[in-house]
Amino acid sequence: MALIPSQVLRVAILLSYFSILCHYRALDMPAHQTYGGSWKFLTFIDLVIQAVFFGLCVLIDVSSLLTKGADSREQERQLKKLIGLRDWMMAVLAFPVGAFVVFTFWSLYLYDRELVYPKLLDNFIPQWLNHGMHTTVLPFIIIEMRTTHHKFPRRSWGLAAVCCFGVGYVLWTCWVHQVTGVWVYPVLERITPLARVVFFGAMTVVICILYVFGEILNSYIWDPPHTEKVKGE
C-alpha cells in the first residue's frame, strides 16, 4: 500500500503548479511586457500543460468518488471520456514536453547558461522557482506515470501529434522573431540561419524520441510480466 494515496499526491502537485504559475506571472521581467508575453517561452507553456493535466487528473479522482456505487451508464461514459483525454495528454503533451524542457534546459545550462538562462535572470527568478519550472516537472510526471496506468495512442498517431506541437512552437518562435526582431532564446541569436534550421529539426527529433521513451517506460512499468514479477518478489 502506498505511503501517500495517489489522489493526495495529485492535489499536492496541482497546488504546487498553481503556486509556481502565480509567482512566475508576478515577476516584473521586461520580456513579459513584449510581444507574446510569457506565452513565447516553452517553459511557461509547459507549466500550463502540466497544471491542466494534473487538474484533469484531480477532476477524474473527484468524479470517480462521486460516481462510485452509482448505476449510471451516462456518468460512466463521461468518466471514460475524461480518462481518455487524460491518457492522451500524458502521452502527447505532459511527458514529452515536460521531459524536453528539463532535458534541453539543463543540457544547455551546463554547457553555457548564457545560451538559455543568462545570469541576469538570477536578479528576477529565485532558485526555488527556477527548479520548479525546470527540474521538478520530470519527477512529478514520473510519479503520475508510476501510480496510474495510462493508455498511449497508436505510436504513429502519437508521434504525429507531438510533431504538430513541436512544429507549431517553432513557427510561433519564428513569428515572434518576425514581429520583434529578437529571438526568444539567446542561443538562436548566436547561430547562423542554416544552423537554426538544423537546431529546430534536431529539437523536433528529440521530442519525438522522448515520446517513444515515455511509451516504453509506461509499458515497462505496467506490462503484465513485469508487474507480476514485482508482486512476486
TrEMBL record:
GO terms for cellular component: endomembrane system; membrane. The chain crosses the membrane at residues 7-27, 47-67, 88-108, 128-145, 157-178, 198-221. InterPro entries: ADTRP_AIG1. The keyword Translocase does not apply. It comes from the Eukaryota. It catalyses: 9-(9Z-octadecenoyloxy)-octadecanoate + H2O = 9-hydroxy-octadecanoate + (9Z)-octadecenoate + H(+); 12-hexadecanoyloxy-octadecanoate + H2O = 12-hydroxyoctadecanoate + hexadecanoate + H(+); 12-octadecanoyloxy-octadecanoate + H2O = 12-hydroxyoctadecanoate + octadecanoate + H(+); 13-(9Z-octadecenoyloxy)-octadecanoate + H2O = 13-hydroxy-octadecanoate + (9Z)-octadecenoate + H(+). It is found in: Endomembrane system. Keywords: Membrane, Transmembrane, Transmembrane helix. Its main location: membrane. It is a multi-pass membrane protein. Belongs to the AIG1 family. This is Androgen-induced 1 (H. sapiens). The lineage of its organism: Eukaryota, Metazoa, Chordata, Craniata, Vertebrata.
